[in-house]
């Protein structure tokens, strides 16, 4: 009950898979650090390049218990590939397998239930152009209506259609979601979405009139955001710093 099985896959998988496991496990620990978690009920996944297999957290573990070795490898049908004592969250399978099935570029998917993303997703006007952080999300933002707990297979097609080619999603009454070609990109996108929602709620709670970003700036922000948050000048620079932070917090994730 209290002693988790101790797994060690470091020398049993390829170097590429091990690095992906380390990055994803670090991301779970960072989500816990930033207090974006929801007990055991949200999920992050990373697809193994060139395969239909992806890694996701073992259902029942808190995010500060996730390690590179206890991540579970599954296929797009939800079958567990490796020998493991753990199972996966059915809702996590529905959401992540649906996205990995149709988005070859979405090697990492982050779905969280933060109070701020739930609150903004549930407002009729959704995310507003009120901060620089919102500029990173708005040009590539979609919405998905609430259909109950995400365990119905019929929801997969709707979710796929709603996400389309966007990289940020607000799930009405439910939370936030981001995708990226790497764990670092998906993490940075969720960081921006989360901050945008926090700032919007802070402004809405004040009695002051707000200034919205003009539409022409919003229309041009996507190319600017690509400079800041991708390639050698953005997300790929931020992720090594976040990885170093995860090691400082608790290096046990990399086991």
From TrEMBL:
It comes from the Bacteria. Pfam families: Aldolase_II. GO terms for biological process: monosaccharide metabolic process. Transmembrane segments: none annotated. GO terms for cellular component: cytoskeleton. Residues 22-201 form the Class II aldolase/adducin N-terminal domain. InterPro entries: Aldolase-II_Adducin_sf (IPR051017), Aldolase_II/adducin_N (IPR001303), Aldolase_II/adducin_N_sf (IPR036409). One of its GO terms (molecular function) is actin filament binding. Signal peptide: none annotated. PANTHER family: ADDUCIN, PROTEIN HU-LI TAI SHAO. Belongs to the aldolase class II family. This is Class II aldolase/adducin N-terminal domain-containing protein.
